[in-house]
Amino acid sequence: MTNSEQLRKEIIEKTIEYHQAKFASKEFIAGESRVNYAGRIFDAKEMSNAVEACLDFWLTEGRYSEEFSDKIAEYLDVEHILLTNSGSSANLLAFSSLTSEKLGDKRLKPGDEVISVAAGFPATVTPIIQYGLVPVFIDVSIPTYNIDVEMMRKAITKKTKCIFIAHTLGNPFNIDAVMQLAKEHDLWVIEDNCDAFGSDYNDSKTGSHAHLSTISFYPAHHITTGEGGAVCTNDPQLALLVRAFRDWGRDCYCAGGENNTCGKRFSQKFGNLPFGFDHKYVYSEIGYNLKMTDIQAAIGAAQIDKLPEFCQQRKENFREWTRIFTKYLDYFILPEATKNSDPAWFAFIVTLKSEAPFTRDELTTYLNDKLIETRVLFAGNITKQPGFMNKYWRIADHLNNTDYIMNNTFILGTYPGLTKEMFDYAESVIENYVSIKK
């Protein structure tokens, strides 16, 4: 063993030792410890992988990026995985790829309409607006919180070219109905799988059905790389386009450190460039640099091995919240999984009934004062957000449920860090509040 190899071995051993010393489990103290709605769950493997990648000092996409991509591809049974620096970037890249002139008459153009929902996260909508297309907002159904399929069906016009929607909080939308509509009307479909990585629909994984799908690895999600995301597709042309938009708009698809993969680096004609201009410096799209680092991928390569366990724990935590809130069905609408689905729930979503003797904000203020974290359903109604009010979009019919959710809905965590002691505490806090307000 060389001196550098010996040093590397010692560094990794010390990293594992450091993790054990720094991140030992802390006792939960009711009323003093926080019941978080989300958080990072990791062990020494993630830390040692990250340190290994630092010691390699390759930094950009390397061996861990390849390993992480391969594991995602195997998990989803999807052929092409393009790692990105965030889930929002993944959404931007997926949508950008459909605007490419290389798609001919199928490309998305300014003025085209895209089916979406207003009860969601901005990153699903912003690419539509940024490229000059028109979001058409469809209401959602309660208690699945996913797109109203019948309203969507009626909203499709000759201008409709794409459907871009998310599986709300890990609960799959009706994929069969959406894909059938897309087939009937020759529409693109982007499946925002950022909150649902690990969910099942008809015994297959969400993120494996549409033309393109996206994942987020932000710390609140099912697995994390800190910041990070991915675009997934079985279409080789779309994979090349996503790569081009991700890598500065570059036409060349060589991996980092490689040259002349196509065998025609100096023997092609592009645009008004001279014949034989170096293909590595040909830019066929108006692109970005949105790649993931190998350090992030090293963490992801360890995290994804835990994904099945994480998903199972999320389902169990969802059942715990259901048990607690079932006692108060006079006041709350509880969430339901979409038919034929098995969600790996991102969160537990609760909507107050109109006859409840308290408001959403009164309850969530009380819970947060008791250190039980809550969130609203993201943007509420995105058409009412200040950044979106003066943008061009249309509402298909109405957003009645979306508005009700904006005012009466909140979410609680299902992440794997929740414990029995935390649920016992939360149960007692909720019981006390309801008894006071009856």
Q: Could you describe the 3D structure shown?
A:
The protein has 438 residues and is an alpha/beta fold. It has two domains: 254 residues, Type I PLP-dependent aspartate aminotransferase-like (Major domain) (Aspartate Aminotransferase, domain 2, 3-Layer(aba) Sandwich), CATH 3.40.640.10; 132 residues, Aspartate Aminotransferase, domain 1 (Alpha-Beta Complex). It is 36% helix and 13% strand. The strands form three sheets. An eight-stranded mixed β-sheet has the order 1-9-8-5-4-2-3-13, with helices on both faces. Helix 1 runs antiparallel to helix 2, helix 2 packs antiparallel against helix 9 and helix 4 crosses helix 8. The longest helix is centred in the N-terminal third of the chain and has 20 residues. The protein is flat and about 80 Å long.
Task: Please name the defining characteristics of this protein.
single chain; 438 residues; alpha/beta; Aspartate Aminotransferase, domain 2; Aspartate Aminotransferase, domain 1; 2 domains; eight-stranded mixed β-sheet; three-stranded antiparallel β-sheet; 13 helices; 14 strands; 36% helix; flat
Helices and strands, in N-to-C order?
HHHEHEHEHEHEEEEEHHHEEEHEHEH
Whole-number radius of gyration?
A: 23 Å
Number of domains: 2
Strand order of the largest sheet: 1-9-8-5-4-2-3-13
Helix content: 25-40%
Rough shape? flat
What does the main sheet amount to? 8 strands, mixed
- CATH superfamily membership of the largest domain: Type I PLP-dependent aspartate aminotransferase-like (Major domain)
